[in-house]
């Protein structure tokens, strides 16, 4: 098992960062009062764990056959985001949780897509990808995001009470999870061929044996959970030291850290001129956050959080999510890309980040 | 004439509901103090009348030749919605009127389109329809809705006075009706071949003789008007009994009841794998509400209502209409559908309904 | 040089208006207290100067070769708008400046595009144009406008302080100009063939000799600047006389006057069934306003204005710009047009104008 891991590390330079996993635990014992250090170390430790988690999930999926494997891939694809958000949920840091949901959708549709277009476009002059597939997935993502945002958008205009928002959020969570279940039936069973998930595993990376994969999956999830706890504990003070609001940390930092593994896959696909893969990962992962991660967190808040969590995003987050998914829908519509399209997407992401940094939202 | 009607009833099982027309009049005389009963009976009576109205209009259109027939179809296609709204207008129930306009646009673009995709998709694996036609109609619908919503959207942000909104609404109504007139010139005269309205009449349903059709048109319109009056009188108390706000009744109940006949046509088209027909009915009917029904109601409010009615929708309705038409535009863009696309559209509609039920808008 | 000019005038009837240039200067000396007269005369004088400026820029571009010429065309294409806005900036009329930026984007995407579709459609039944090119340019325009609007949209919801908006505007201006520079690299160097700028010069109009062109460019720019000063001085009182707010003047009048020369080119292209040209001018010019003119004005306000100018548009302008670019994106998506599409775009523009006239924004 160790030799497989070592071979894997040679393949994927990101995994050298695994050395920070023991370092962050050591630091927590030795310097519990250095939140900035713990914050940085925990970020460095989560990135390689996310990459391991991603590879383990794909290995199990490859071994268990199409239906179960697809289910696993679809459910565990955003496991890192989920585990980090659960740690924040347990600590009652709801602003951080909501910001990380909103940030993950925006990061997937603007940063992941933009950087894929840029990296691919620097190597290939004009890249073409399947318009039919991209439009279909973009329509699903758009509808998923709309469904997630309706209550927030309307509540903002009608000034809903907290109790009403809680009722709405619970109803919404149930509807979203039902939709997600039907979506799995659709993408794994009735219309499997529309989604090229079989291509997900890269040619160069052989899947691990089942035992190793399952063991890694379980062990690494525990490690991510432990590191996330350190991360969440240190984030508030560290953010203040860097002049960042909790919303900024959740929206930008957690979203980029949690999605690092998928981004690595998407960027590698773009360099190999397989933009279908990159677009599929970016849009699919964003839709999964909206339809699965967000409602699961609402439901779990009843059991794990100090109080039920409502799905009311602050107004700026609603605008940013709507703009981001609308942009992704319109941009992927042409089925062609070049480096400047990537620059423009990244620029919109940068302007979001700048605005959020300078103008922290007034949320409690 | 009666035998034709009886033959028709055997064809269309919806028409058995015609028995509720005498029942609702009897109930109004016998139990004028049972608003919930009258509300339910009047809904059951309007649905078959709408179906008759729709078939009579098509029969007259088929007999009078293309130009006049097209004009009739285009003008009387939403006659049921118009007659119900007029009854509410006369009673001064402006929230109900505006909610039924907004609800009709949303029901056409989300519910009718979504249920067509779902019903068609359960029978046919992937359905393709003319992208060119759908995009063209979607662009018209989008522009029509935008035109209808600009004053509401801006007034909300600028906090306009009632007098200013009234001036704006009158100007807007004139502009919309001019646009509608030019649109008729376009779709019936100069570019007729872009709109497949000749296909509207189903193969199985032979058109009625002209006399029967005209007589039915006149007689049934009077019946709808009479039943609508009972409906509008009973709706407020009945809605309270069901815990529904007037906005919810107008947005969901009136819109679905008024559009029942067109929905039957759209669904039947989808089952027969003629999605072009379904998409055309859904988008065309929504555009007609925005360009014709809404401004006509504003103009008539000067003569028939207790006071002039402004076209200021409440903020939530503006958001819902914009989201619904944008969604329809993006979803029909791909020219393909499968059952899950229908599920997603219906889910967005369901979330709209849930939000509106839990969070009634603060309108007077 | 004079004979070339006279020959040009015979070609382009707009240039007869050049007679108003000396007239406006005479009027300023003789009747300095007649703002309404000066306002009208200065508009009549700017239109032919803008046409000359446009032809001179193209002539210099044609002589200097592709790279430098493209750069000139791209930078000086909106020179008239820039010079008028600078005059307003120097006078501290920031509402007028911002309204003219917003108005130029809306006028290009709704009025210029709509009138091109209408004028072309009245001559040609259905016009087709390159979907690929239009979609690409529309995506660039959409992203550029989004980037310009994010801070305004978020600040509105979060009620940002003036100091924060100033910081945001400065950062935004720098990011937009960097994006614009990369966009030039893209459209002039790495992906030149995607943009048919070489076709811009019309067949019938021979380019001027370099000396004449450079001289005209310099001389006419000075004239535009001088006339703009009279325009800006007289606008406030004249607007009051016509019952127009400064926002209306900037949004409608300045935008149409400043864009007159480009509109003439776009309309002429549409009549010749070269809609690719018209769509390219309309979308490209709007993107240039967002990425170049707007940030340059912010930066210059630090040196030329009485106080730094922030890029905070009033809420109505944000909505109108978003709707306009979204509409342009969706409408050009089909790659086909007919006269009624033009009518609808013009109608949306007219409703914008009507709303702005009746409901002036509450800005300082």
Describe the protein in words.
The structure is a homotrimer of 364-residue chains. Chain A has helices at residues 2-11, 20-30, 35-63, 66-76, 79-90, 94-123, 131-158, 162-190, 210-242, 246-258, 260-271, 275-304, 315-331, 339-358; strands spanning 127-128, 336-337. The first copy, chain A, is mostly helical and 364 residues long. The first copy, chain A, is globular. Chain A has a two-stranded antiparallel ribbon with strand order 1-2. The model of chain A is unreliable at 197-204 (pLDDT under 50). In chain A, helix 7 (131-158) packs parallel to helix 12 and helix 11 runs antiparallel to helix 12 (275-304). Chains in contact: A-B, A-C, B-C. Chains B and C meet through helix 7 and helix 8 of B and helix 13 and helix 14 of C.
Describe the structure in brief.
The structure is a homotrimer of 364-residue chains. Chain A is mostly helical and 364 residues long.
Attribute tags:
two-stranded antiparallel ribbon, mainly alpha, 2 strands, homotrimer
């Amino acid at each position: 098992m160790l030799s497989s891991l070592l071979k894997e590390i040679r393949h994927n330079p990101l995994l050298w960062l695994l050395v920070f996993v023991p370092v962050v635990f050591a630091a927590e014992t030795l310097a519990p009062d250095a939140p900035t250090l713990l914050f940085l170390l925990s970020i460095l430790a989560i990135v390689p764990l996310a990459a391991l988690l991603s590879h383990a999930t794909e290995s199990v999926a490859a071994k268990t056959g199409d239906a179960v494997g697809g289910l696993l891939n679809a459910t565990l694809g955003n496991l890192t985001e989920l585990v980090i958000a659960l740690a924040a949920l347990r600590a009652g840091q709801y602003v951080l949780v909501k910001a990380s949901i909103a940030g993950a959708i925006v990061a997937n549709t603007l940063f992941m897509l933009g950087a894929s277009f840029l990296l691919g476009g620097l190597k290939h002059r004009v890249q073409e990808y399947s318009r039919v597939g991209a439009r279909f997935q973009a329509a699903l993502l758009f509808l998923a995001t709309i469904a997630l945002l309706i209550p927030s958008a309307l509540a903002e205009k009608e000034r809903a009470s907290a109790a009403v928002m809680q009722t709405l959020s619970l109803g919404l969570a149930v509807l979203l999870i039902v939709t997600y279940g039907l979506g799995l039936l659709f993408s794994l069973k009735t219309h499997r061929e529309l989604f090229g998930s079989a291509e997900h595993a890269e040619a160069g990376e052989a899947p691990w044996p089942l035992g190793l994969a399952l063991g890694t999956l379980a062990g690494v999830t525990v490690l991510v959970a432990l590191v996330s706890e350190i991360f969440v504990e240190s984030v508030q003070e560290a953010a203040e030291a860097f002049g960042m609001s909790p919303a900024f940390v959740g929206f930008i930092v957690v979203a980029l850290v949690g999605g690092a593994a998928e981004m690595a896959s998407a960027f590698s696909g773009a360099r190999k001129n397989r933009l279908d893969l990159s677009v599929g990962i970016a849009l699919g992962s964003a839709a999964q956050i909206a339809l699965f991660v967000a409602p699961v967190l609402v439901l779990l808040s009843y059991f794990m959080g100090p109080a039920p969590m409502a799905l009311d995003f602050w107004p700026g987050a609603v605008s940013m999510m709507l703009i981001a998914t609308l942009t992704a829908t319109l941009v992927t519509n042409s089925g062609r890309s070049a480096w400047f399209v990537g620059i423009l997407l990244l620029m919109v992401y940068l302007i979001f980040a700048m605005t959020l940094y300078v103008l922290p939202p007034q949320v409690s």
